[in-house]
Amino acid sequence: MHLLSIRLLSLGVTLLAPLSLAAAEPISPIFAPTDIDNHKAEIGKQLFFDPRLSKSGFLSCNSCHNLSMGGADNLTSSVGHGWHQGPINSPTVLNSAYNLAQFWDGRAADLQEQAAGPIANPGEMAQPHAVALEVIASIPGYVDSFTVAYGDESITLDRVTDAIAEFERTLVTPNSRFDQWLLGDKAALTSVEVEGYTLFKNSGCVACHSGPAVGAALYQKVGLIKPYVTDNRAQGRFAVTGNESDRMVFKVPTLRNIELTYPYFHDGSVNTLEEAVQIMGEIQLGRSFSDLETGQIVAFLKTLTGDQPNFPLPHLPPSTPATPQPNPYGA
Questions:
Q1: Could you list the active site residues?
Q2: C-alpha closest to that of 113 among 168, 52, 32, 37
Q3: pLDDT tens for residues 121-179?
Q4: Is CATH 1.10.760.10 the right assignment for the domain spanning 38-169?
């Protein structure tokens, strides 16, 4: 039996059509993980929403990766400590477990490594790791939860980031209309949306945007055919490797939930999918899409919006007199 068939049957999914049809497509269905450690994920959920990890006591992971807004913040660049303007557009956290690496330039190998960065970054949450750990360790509710999840009450950066990463692994958005179509429900898409997908494939977009995340699996130069003109100073992988060939090479973003994660591109300079499609056609493919073609592709892209994270907001354990106090107005 096909591996995808086995996967679906294990999840209790009714097979609507031979899965060889879905397997033949460059984009594959996405599914929620089944191997989550619920104790760790629950701690990670609390930490994701906890502003006490920030120096100001105001910012949390959810500030820049708002789960009510497609896992991003819909700003050109995020607002950090002291109203610091971030250097780059905040990517969505949804389906981020599928990324080959984290951040636009891939400087973090995985979700756990990524989770540590923003906490201590002076332009983001601005909280030294030692202080963040002191905050968590001063809260009995967290100590109890870490003891259950990890076997003892030791609270380390490795455990904190592991818990956040475990929660972020749950933020998968299955059951999009396109997934339903892939799995055999041919009524899930309109004719215009199918035409858009066909054009998306035939134009070469799937060279970068394929697989379950519809992207996120490789790096690519922005401005492959024509230079991409931007005032943003980010240089992509070049900042990590120092190799000239990596200048303006960025991680290809996922296109899942793309209608929710505007503005677009690493510099957040494009507000509409229509403009994004036309620019990508020109600078990456050397092709000018007509208004009709653009509309068809955009119609397809909107079918990639899946089930959004839906759970009660976590109740954060209360601080104690020993908890370090925030500094919301200091430098």
A1: 124
A2: 168
A3: 999 999 999 999 999 999 999 999 999 999 999 999 999 999 999 999 999 999 999 99
A4: yes
